[in-house]
Amino acid sequence: MAGRTTFLTISVCFLCACNGGGSGETETAATTTTPSTLNPSESQTSSGTTVDTSTGDEPTVGSLGATSDETSATLPTTVDPTTTDDSTTGPSCLGLECQVDDCGGSPASTTIRGKVFAPEGTLPLYNVTVYIPNAPLTPVTEGVTCDLCTNGLPGDPIVATLTDTTGEFVLEGVPAGADIPLVLSVGKWRREVTIPVTPCVENLAPEPTTRLPRDQSEGHIPRIALTTGGADPLECLLRKLGVADSEFTPPDGPGRVNLFDGPGGTSRYDDNLNDGADFDDARDLWDDAQRLQLYDIILMACEGGENPDQKSDQARANIVEYAGLGGRLFFSHWHKFWIEEGPDMWPDTAVFNDQADLPDPVTALIDTSFPKGQALSQWMVNVGGSMMAPEMEISQGQHTIDAVNPDLATRWVYTDAPESTVQYFTFNTPVGVPDEQQCGRVVDSDIHVSSGDQIGQPFPDGCTTTQLTPQEKALIFMLFELSACLLPDDEDPIPG
After folding, report:
1. Has residue 29 got a pLDDT over 60?
2. Burial, 179: exposed, middle or buried (Cβ in 10 Å; 0-12, 13-18, 19+)?
3. Are residues 133 and 234 in the same domain?
4. Which residues in 384-490 belong to E strands, given as ranges?
5. Whole-angstrom distance, CA of residue 3 vs CA of residue 196
6. pLDDT at 246 over 60
7. Integer Cα distance of 425 and 423 in angstroms
8. Domain limits for position 358
9. How buried is 238 (Cβ within 10 angstroms: 0-12 exposed, 13-18 middle, 19+ buried)?
10. DSSP class of residue 55?
11. Which of 192, 271, 298, 302 is most buried when burial is the number of CB atoms within 10 A of its CB?
12. Are the C-beta atoms of residues 221 and 213 closer than 8 Å to each other?
C-alpha cells in the first residue's frame, strides 16, 4: 500500500486483563479470532478463573511472526496462539500479559503514544519497531547476520508497531503498571526503557526516552566501519546524527564505530580522542574477508577517484561475499567502482555512464512508485528536507548512473532535468537469487552528502557544521533503512 500515512499495530498477546473490582479474577480470551476480523471489544469473555502468576515460570509466548495486509486501521490485530477447545488445560496468561486491563470490555483502550528520534534527539525516524516484550531480550548477535523481517522479534512481544513518516507510534492493548518495558529497534540499533502506564487511557511516552542510543550505556549500536575519503567527510555525519565521540575508537577499542584511512581522507584522531591514534588503512579492511564480517554496516566516503589499484580482485570478491552473508554497504560516488567492476551480477544492477557533474544545486525527485519511496517523500516534507513532495534540492550531485535495472535494483532519488540521472539506488544481495534467499543490502549514492565539513583534518576537528542539509537528512533516512531488517522493496514494512 504505497504512500500510507497510517501505521499498523500488530499484537501478539492473550488479552488477559485483571478486573479492577478487587475480586482477584482475570478476564481472558476464550475464542480464537483471525487477525483480519478480530474486534478486541467483542473477543473478550469471562472465564471466571483465577490465574496464578506466582510460579516464576518464564513466558512461553510464540515469537512475533505476523505480517500485514493492506489496511488503514490503527486498532491492533490480535492473535491468541494458545487458545484451545479446553480452556482449563493451562494458564490463560503469563507475565505482563496478565496486566492488560479489560477496561470494561475494551482492552485496546490502554495505549502508549510517542515519537522515536535519531540519537541526536530532534530528528523523527520512520520505520522503527516499537514493542512491549513479555520476556527478557536476547543479546544482539555480533557481526554480519542474515536479518530478515520474517525472523520475528526477541522478547515474545505482547504488542508491536512501526513508526510512521512523522516518527509517531501508537501501541494499543498494552499492560499497565509502574515499570512497563518499551523497546525501540531498527536493525541492530536497540534501546529498552521502562515507563509508567495507567490503564484504560492514552499514555504519552516521554521524548527523552524515545530516541535511539547515543552510546552503549543507553542501548545497542551496530558495529560500523567507515572508510574516509578525499571528497566527502562522511564521518562527520555520524556525529551530527548523535553518535557520541566515545563510540569512535580504533578496531581494538570498545567503541562501535571504527574509522579507516582512505585516499585523501582523514587519517587519524585528534590528540584529545584515542590519544591521536592513526586510522588503520582501508585496504586492511576490505582485503580481509573475516575482518569485514565483524561489522554490521560498512560506509565508504568518496575518495575523489576510483583508485582501482587499491581495490584488488580479491577485495571485490570479499565485498560481494560480505554483502551476500547479510552485510550492509553504503557507497558514496566513486565507490560505485565496487558495483560497476564487481564480480557476480553486481554490474548488471545499473547503467553506469561517467559524465560531467550536475548543476549545483539541482532539483531531484524522489521515486514514489514503491512503499518506502513514498515514505521517504512524505518524511522529507515532515522533517523540513523538502518544500514540496516529491522534490528535494541537492548540491554536488554527480552523473555516473543513467538508470537502474528494475529487475535487480530500486531507484530512490533521480533527476530528469537537465539530465536523466540516478542519485540513490539500492539492491538486495546475493543479486539475482529469489527474495527469500537474500540477506544483505547495498545503497549507492551519487551525491557528496557531507559538504561543508573539512576534509583531511584529524577527527573530529574537521566536523564544523551543525545543521543537517536536505541531502544529509535523506542519507540519514537511507542509513536507517539500510540498518533495518530485510524485505523486498515492493512490500510494505513490518515490525522486525
Report:
1. no
2. exposed
3. no
4. 391-394, 399-404, 410-415, 421-429, 440-445
5. 34
6. yes
7. 7
8. 224-483
9. buried
10. S
11. 302
12. yes
